[in-house]
Amino acid sequence: MAQDRPVEAIDEAHPDVVALMYGPLVLFAKTDEQPPLTRTQVLEARRSGGSEWVIDTDKEPLHLVPFTDVGEAAYTTYLKLS
């Protein structure tokens, strides 16, 4: 449900640059280069097991995890919505 995964804008001037939240946790996208994302795609993120979440994109799934699970992977905190 979307209410379980709200998006938090970086600030009022940039409402389409958001962090995906799960309760008090920020979910970090494990990626070198963010694929184009819509607000709907982000809100439809689903848990894929353990602490990992997935956003379906037009190219390949985008995997998100809490910061403690990022490890050595490249990541981004904020997602740019198109």
Describe this protein's structure.
- With 82 residues, the protein is mainly beta.
- It has one domain.
- Helices cover 6% and strands 45% of the residues.
- It has one helix and eight strands, in the order βββαβββββ.
- The protein has one helix spanning 39-43; strands spanning 7-11, 14-22, 25-30, 46-49, 52-55, 62-66, 75-76, 79-80.
- Strands 1, 2, 3, 4, 5, 6, 7 and 8 form an eight-stranded antiparallel sheet that branches.
- A hairpin with a 6-residue loop joins strand 5 (52-55) and strand 6.
- The longest helix is centred in the middle third of the chain and has 5 residues, at 39-43.
- The radius of gyration is 12 Å and the shape is globular.
- The two termini are 21 Å apart.
Keywords, separated by commas or semicolons:
8-stranded antiparallel sheet; 1 helix; globular; mainly beta; 82 residues
The figure for the number of domains is 1
Instruction: Calculate the terminal CA-CA distance, rounded to whole Å.
Output: 21 Å
The quaternary structure here is single chain
- Please state the overall shape, judged from the principal axes of the Cα atoms: globular
| Uncertain parts | none
Number of helices: 1
The largest sheet is: 8 strands, antiparallel
Furnish the topology, listing elements before pairings.
Elements: E1 7-11, E2 14-22, E3 25-30, H1 39-43, E4 46-49, E5 52-55, E6 62-66, E7 75-76, E8 79-80
Antiparallel strand pairs: 1-2, 2-3, 2-8, 3-6, 3-7, 4-5, 5-6
Give a brief description:
The chain has one helix and eight strands. With 82 residues, it is mainly beta.
